[in-house]
Write a structure and sequence with these properties.
Blueprint: H1 50-55, E1 69-70, E2 88-99, E3 106-116, E4 120-126, E5 131-137, E6 140-141, E7 143-148, E8 154-159, E9 169-178, E10 183-184, E11 191-196, E12 201-204, E13 224-233, E14 237-239, E15 243-244, E16 248-249, E17 254-265, E18 273-275, E19 277-280, E20 289-290, E21 292-295, H2 301-304, H3 308-319, E22 326-327, E23 329-332, E24 339-340, E25 346-349, H4 356-364, E26 372-374, H5 381-398, H6 404-407, H7 428-445, H8 447-460, E27 464-466, H9 468-479, H10 484-492
Parallel strand pairs: 1-4, 2-13, 20-22, 23-25, 26-27
Antiparallel strand pairs: 2-3, 3-9, 4-8, 5-6, 5-9, 7-8, 10-11, 11-12, 13-17, 14-18, 15-17, 16-17, 19-21, 24-25
Helix pairs in contact: 3-4, 4-5, 5-7, 7-8, 8-9
Length: 499
Amino acid sequence: MPNRSVSNHSSTNRSPGRRLIAASIAVAVLAAGCVGGDRQVTAESDERTDSDIAADTNSTTTTEAPTGTPGADTIGDPYYPGLGNGGYDVEHYDITITADPASPDITGRATIESVATQDLSQFNLDLNGLAVHAVDVDDEAVEYSRQPAAGLSSELVVTPTEPIAEGDTFTTSVDYSGTPQPVIEASTGFTLGWNDTVDGSYVTSEPDGARSWFPSNDHPSDKATFGFEFIVPEGVEVASNGSLAPLVDNGDGTTTWAWDMDQPMATYLATAVIGQYEIEEPPPAGEVTIRNFFPVGMTEAPAAFARTGEMIEYFSSIFGDYPFDEYGVVVVPAFLGFALETQTMSVFGRDLVGIEAVVVHELAHQWFGNSVSPARWQDIWLNEGFATYSEVLWQEHLDPTFDPDVALEASAQLEPIGDPGPDNLFSRAVYQRGALVLHELRRTVGDEAFFDTLRAWNIDYRYSTATTQDFVTLAEQVSGMDLATQFDAWLNAPQFPTD
């Protein structure tokens, strides 16, 4: 997930990716919540009354009773019961949002292309709080309702007029509006999803905040491509994921900012940052376009991110090619207490500007967590341990006298990370003991097999998801060694083995 300012030194398909971090600089966790607007956010802000839910129920009646089976209302991740849904696989999202920094409300339309994975009579989408006005399936108005999900807020339940056959592609369109209600992340207390700033808004969603601003299958195991259109007043900038299309003047005082994320992305990595920004485009890193969004007047920001191109080129040499066409950062004009590696456009609070280890960490996540995402949240160390160890690798690259053994020595005292639990998803141990696991693997198999494993990881699981067992299996294949016992101790022993 994000670098929650915890870098004490110092992210059932297949394709490539990779991850690392961990090194020299201590970054303190700053706030127990995000600064954003004047809305009061509480854990209860997900709740909807019976009348609210009833008002969201379409009166359209079906003419034929469905004969398929309803999709599951959860994807089955025990860390987040109720999150994600079964019965379909999303291929693509088109999200159109109309927003004005002068108002906390948004108006949205989500068009979702999916493939049924069973004969489907009904299916759910994750959506928190926002009012739904209409739902179509394949351009036909259908019944829908809202219901609570286990441990979460209301879900959107969609009933097609006829069942959808397994293997068929179908398109769902949802019109919605309202004031987004951020959700509270259990292990840190940060507010996730759509948040206000003094001049606009920002989105950081790991692990379960995407449902605060668009209906989705909100779990990283169901990745999809994305298209975004943001309609905002003239003179307002919008940073998001992927490649930026030419701006469109709508002739009514608004401008459309369109972004296309052509490689599959987990929902938690989708972002929208709206406000007053200066756009910087430094020289590319090889063929990778770099585009940064800095708050107007933040003169120190360009220098703080000046080495991004050099970092991309170095990590491409040891992890494999940078997995996307573009990269950049957007600095939110607020003290967030964290940064988040949203795909191709990392989001920083202004409090982390100038901390190079955090810049490295979020960039490394583009390989580890974004291109290759965790198939289940239990395996979060595959994101954070890899990004933290990347900090170590960057320090080694810069300073031949740097000793990673010394830098990671204290991490051996941290608790196990193989199954950290949802309340410790972003604990210091996940980051730093995760980095130590990778360093111990490197010491065990040698540099050649270690870096070959990282490059193979980014090839085999590119744009897809993977588990800890997938990584152990790959490391054994590349090294020719039996590593299961070592990995079990590194990840699960009460104290990290030191011999």
